[in-house]
Amino acid sequence: MSLKDYKYIVEVATFAGLIMLESNAECYRVENTVSRILKISNLPTIDVFANTTGLFITLDGPNLKAPITFVKRIEKRETNLRKIHIVNQISRDITAKTITIEEAYCQLQAIGKTVYSKRIHSISTILLVLSFTALFGGNLNELFLSFIAAILLLGTYKLKQYFELNDFIFGTVSTLIVATIIPILIHVIGQPDNSFNVVIISVLMPLFPGTAFTNGFRDTFKGDYGSGVAKIVEALIIAVSLGLGVALGLFISKGIVSWV
Predict the structure, then answer these.
(1) Which of 6, 64, 227, 239 has its CA 20 to 30 A from that of 134?
(2) How far apart are CA 243 and CA 225, in angstroms?
């Protein structure tokens, strides 16, 4: 292989790692997948280090005059198990020699082009909230309130994109808006106060960082304490922001209801 070929392999491996980290994959899984792709170079030195915010890759051997090192920073993350599965399968296909490195790169590029549309994402969010309301024994009025809460939540997603809010601010703002408006609607339609519990728990489900929390423990149990603790702290911060938003929303809504 030429130097250009080795660099191309590292670029493809880096691209695969970035997709997995941005999809909230466990760091040990990212390192395993990237290392699997790099092994097709047949070079003895393969070093991969992944954490929540960065990916570091080094490839070296007697065929290279100097090590090839790539460093990439991870600036955005979302939970997407589908992308994680596809990238992991591509890496296995490469090592099994069922696809070439060029075909693998084309498949990796195609992953971002086949994401779900905003309309599908919005409908899924609404159905998720309504499903939890039904699961918690909500009546028709509570289902209606949950539908309104889901619409409000979708509106806050647009605020996040427009103002480029971080996870803590977004969690606080989204739950603040929902926890302010829903109690007022409950008071207007004459629903009992405990209806708020069903509605707010249901609308919190799409926001709860369950995957990040689970991945943090999995990384920790694998011995990767740095990335594991980072993911757990990230999940706890998001959980605190949700609680803070609900508390502020209740405080504001009670003041408005008592004033009216």
Answers:
(1) 239
(2) 27
- In tens, the pLDDT along 147-202 reads 999 999 999 999 998 898 888 999 999 999 999 999 999 988 887 877 889 999 99
Confirm whether pTM is higher than 0.90: no
* Sequence ranges of the domains in the chain: 3-114, 118-259
Q: Is the pLDDT at 14 greater than 90, yes or no?
A: yes
Closest CA to 156 of 142, 168, 138, 174: 174
DSSP the chain: --HHHHHHHHHHHHHHHHHHHHTT--HHHHHHHHHHHHGGG--SEEEEEE-SSEEEEEEE-TT-SS-EEEEEE-------HHHHHHHHHHHHHHHTTSS-HHHHHHHHHHHGGGPPPHHHHHHHHHHHHHHHHHHTT--HHHHHHHHHHHHHHHHHHHHHHHHT--HHHHHHHHHHHHHHHHHHHHHHHT--TTHHHHHHHHHHTTT--HHHHHHHHHHHHTT-HHHHHHHHHHHHHHHHHHHHHHHHHHHHHHHHHHH-
- Dihedrals φ, ψ of 96, to 5°? -80, -5
Q: What are 55's strand-pairing partners?
A: 50, 72
Tens of pLDDT, residue by residue over 51-65, are: 888 999 999 999 898
